[in-house]
Design goal:
The chain is α/β, with parallel strands linked by helices. Helices cover about 50% and strands about 15% of the residues. It has helices spanning about 15-25, 30-40, 45-55, 60-70, 90-100, 115-125, 140, 165-190, 200-215; strands at about 1-5, 30, 80-85, 110-115, 125-130, 135-140, 155-160, 190-195. The strands form 2 sheets. It has a 5-stranded parallel beta sheet with strand order 2-3-1-4-8, with helices on both faces. A 3-stranded antiparallel beta sheet has the order 6-5-7. Helix 1 (about 15-25) packs across helix 9 (about 200-215), helix 4 runs parallel beside helix 5 and helix 6 (about 115-125) crosses helix 8. The radius of gyration is 19 Å and the shape is globular. It starts with a strand and ends with a helix. The chain binds zinc ion. The site of zinc ion has 9 residues, from loops.
Length: about 220
């Protein structure tokens, strides 16, 4: 089973990727993780990526594509994988097609977890973190509390910069402008499964699983 997962920040994409990974026994390939792995293992591409990141620059497409190719060729991806955070541009999508052709994979499923911008903003601006232990809570859970339920620190709740409204709006804008063309591309060539992400975690997982099992039976 080869999956590509799309979803805006805050929709719970990472959580779903983990659940699908456990359910199907296939690895969750997040670009952040495989980039760190390549740097740590000092692969040829990892060394180049590290030099670029040390200069404070973004890792260019050709290196990222190379790292994805190296990863998908590994034995652990033999029975499938879940790609998360890739492809992020049309160029990357076209490169991925070539990699899949090399690997003789002709059946990929694209899952697009959706949510309205306003709902995501509501969800994310409601988050509070504990300064002392880093745990994340929903504002509703802690609004009457003075003490962190995890580490028992006093008056330690705050709103992280990442959870402030203007920061979130900007991330959502960047997501939608970069992802839209990629999704359009896949809608032309593949079947994209849209899943409503604004439900309980279990329900989202079940909807993905049943959509996938319908696809396989058709
Ligand atoms: Zn705490």
């Amino acid at each position: 089973m080869q999956l590509i997962l799309f979803g805006p920040p805050g929709v719970g994409k990472g959580t779903q990727a983990k659940k699908l990974s456990a359910k199907y026994g296939i690895p969750h390939i997040s670009t952040g993780d495989i980039l760190r792995e390549a740097v740590k293992n000092k692969t040829a591409l990892g060394i180049r990526a590290q030099e670029i990141m040390q200069r404070g620059e973004l890792v260019p497409d050709d290196i990222m594509v190379g790292i994805v190719r190296d990863t998908l060729k590994k034995p652990r991806c033999k029975t499938g994988f879940i790609l998360d955070g890739f492809p992020r541009s049309l160029g990357q999508a076209e490169s991925l097609n070539k990699i899949l052709a090399e690997l003789k994979i002709n059946n990929i499923y694209i899952i697009n977890i959706t949510a309205s911008e306003e709902e995501l903003i509501k969800r994310l601006t409601n988050r509070r973190a504990c300064k002392s232990c880093g745990s994340i809570f929903n504002y509703k859970e802690i609004k009457d509390k003075k003490e962190c339920p995890v580490c028992h620190a006093d008056n330690s709740f705050y709103q992280r910069n990442d959870d402030k409204e203007d920061v979130i709006r900007n991330r959502l804008k960047v997501y939608s402008s970069t992802t839209k063309p990629v999704l359009q591309y896949y809608k032309k060539h593949n079947y994209v499964i849209d899943i409503n992400g604004l439900q309980e975690i279990e329900e989202v997982t079940n909807n993905i699983l049943s959509a996938l099992s319908n696809m396989k039976n058709n």
